[in-house]
Structures are given as structure tokens and as C-alpha cells.
Hints:
Helices cover 35% and strands 23% of the residues. With 195 residues, it is of the alpha/beta class. It starts with a strand and ends in a 6-residue tail after the last helix. It binds 5-O-phosphono-beta-D-ribofuranosylamine.
Amino acid sequence: MSRKRVAILISGRGSNMQALIEAAKASDFPAEIVGVLSNRAAAPGLATAASQGIATASLAQSKFPSRDMFEDIMTQTLESWDVDIVCLAGFMRILGEDFVNHWAGRMINIHPSLLPLYRGLHTHERALADDAKVHGCTVHFVTPGLDEGAAILQAEVPVLPGDTPDTLSARVLIEEHRIYPEALRMLASGEIAPL
Ligand code: GRF
């Protein structure tokens, strides 16, 4: 079996990144994590990845004259790792159309809501403000529209009385760590076709 080569893009903690790294340790997992790229040098996930012998890169958009140039260098970095699939895992930058189209069908994201509900930020706060009874997360293909690409997997969690954004996000995060590796497995194995 030839394993797909995967890069993970992060901006922070990297708990979803770690879930993907753990899943890829299984010899029958159809993908390997070959690199982690962050747009923030201080992202704790970078050190976590480096400590496990994974190649890392840090690229700050502010150091580039334009977003296009920043994203060109991101693509060059990913291609230097010979990447087949890109996983966004808490990457807090909206990506431009050229970058997204370059990786179309090969780039997926984890979003902390049951899309199409609550695209964008502060999903847990917004679900609580709406008095939602159910919340959750979605792994989806990345397309130029924010959080608009086709869903691959979703998981629901109940919203419980007394929930705060923190308690609710912790419950959702458990499901994120479960469905993200499963969605990557489905894409890398060819079980679902790229877009
Ligand atoms: C997760 O909630 C993910 O759904 C969202 O950003 C958060 C990243 O957390 N896109 P982590 O860095 O994976 O711990």
C-alpha cells in the first residue's frame, strides 16, 4: 500500500493535528503525516510535531508583501514535502482562491459546528445563544467560500443545561478528534472521491 503524504496546517494548540498524527501511526492507515506548517511561530502544535520528528515550517503572512506571495510560498513548502493531501486543523487564516483551487479535492478542514450551521468563528457561543439542543463538528472539503465545501463526516453532541462555550467546545472536541482521522482515512484510501 502506498500511503498518501499529508501536511497539516495549524495556527495554535494542535490537538486535531495530534489526533491525525496518532491515527497515522497505525501500519494500516492509508496516510502518513510528512509535515506541519504554521502561520504562527509560537503555535504550540509546532513544537509538538517537531518533538515527534515531523518536519515543520513557520511562515508569517505579515513577512510577505501580499497574500498571494505568502500562499505561493506555502504551496512551494508543501510541494517540497511532496504532499498529496492538506489538512487544515485550526488554521486561522482565510485562504485565497488560487491556493484553494490549487489544492481542490485534496484539502480538508475540521469545523466546530454542524455545517451549514454556524460558518465562521465563535460557533459554540452562537449555538448557546440560539438555545440549540444539538451541536457538533464537520470535516469538509475546502472550497473558496468560507466553510462551504461538501461535508465528508459530521458528529453531533447534545447541548446540556448549564453548558458554557468551554464545556460545549470540550464535548465537541472529543468528536473532532474521532471524525477527523476517519475522514482522512476515507479520502486517502480512495473510499471517497476527491471533488
Ligand atoms: C478546533 O475546534 C477546530 O475545529 C477549529 O479550530 C480548533 C483547533 O483546535 N477549526 P486544535 O488546534 O486542533 O486543538
